[in-house]
Amino acid sequence: MEGTQENGETSVEERVNPPASGLSKTAQKKQLKQQRYEAKKAEKKARMKEEKKREGERKRKEWEEKLASVTEEERSKLIESRKGMRKERMEKRSEERGKKIQRLNEAKEKGQNIVIDLEFSHLMTASEIHSLVQQIMYCYAVNGKCETPGHLWLTGCKGEMESQLNRLPGFDKWIIEKQNGSYIEALQDRKDNLVYLTADSETVLDDLDLSKIYIVGGLVDRNRWKGITMKKAQEQGIQTAKLPIGNYLKMSSSQVLTVNQVIEILLKFLETRDWKASFFQVIPQRKRFEADSEPNSEAKSEEHQGEEDGGESEEEDYQSERKKKCIEATSDG
Length: 333
What we know:
- With 333 residues, the protein is of the alpha/beta class.
- The chain has helices at 12-16, 25-68, 72-110, 126-145, 159-166, 183-186, 228-236, 259-272, 275-282, 298-302, 320-328; strands at residues 113-117, 151-155, 177-178, 194-197, 213-217, 239-241, 249-251, 288-290.
- The strands form 2 sheets. It has a 6-stranded parallel β-sheet with strand order 3-2-1-5-4-6, with helices on both faces. A two-stranded antiparallel sheet has the order 7-8.
- Helix 4 links the parallel strand 1 (113-117) and strand 2 (151-155).
- The chain starts with 11 loop residues before the first helix and ends in a 5-residue tail after the last helix.
């Protein structure tokens, strides 16, 4: 097994973070990989925090030196100018926040309903739940920036999932439906309009219908639970569909799409009504190639062409700066 030394002794990493019993060798390797990823991520976060602190100190020093090098009259003008720019930024931000709130409230009345099903939290580790919470935060941030946002729902929001979500800054102000119960309970009078998005479905989603309510499974590391969302939908007697990814591109590896990627694809399509543009704007280039290229890889790619109802064990880091800026907006409600 990966991480085991040749003499049969376990590595320091395995002694500190022993793999969960009952997991296959492949799952154990994946778990160790996730642990390394989390450690690397924490190091990067600490490094970025320190760099940000140094940059702030540098700017403060430059500002103080600039003020010290001018006359008292010029100093007063510089300070007033800076205050004016700060006020202008705050007013602009307040205006943008007001427009966002208006768009989201309108979406409650006439927007596309999209549900994130959180009833799988008992199948995930605390780390995986944290990863999903981060994805949900990004979903809300992206939705708030859309000119035609959808109306997002969180159903089955309870236990550790609810606790972690409630710790998000501004979560109590989010314009989103929050339900402790399942979507079946919350939307029982609209059951005929429920559509679960699952890669196992034989029905390809050609368009989005405002009368339908699309459900995305909130499950990280879906490879451990293959077919679980399709089975759930069949048992509940609700419709299923899959995104038409295979019509436009082939996945270049076994990596699956995260929940936030699926939601962003749906939101992009609401704006563009163009599936290809939506896929290519959201799915990282390293995970795809066009459907008409590399034909010899077709068989390999079809096996993993979407998995649009789940996430992957490693949280996506592509376009990290854009993602970071987008998430910062969620604290405004």
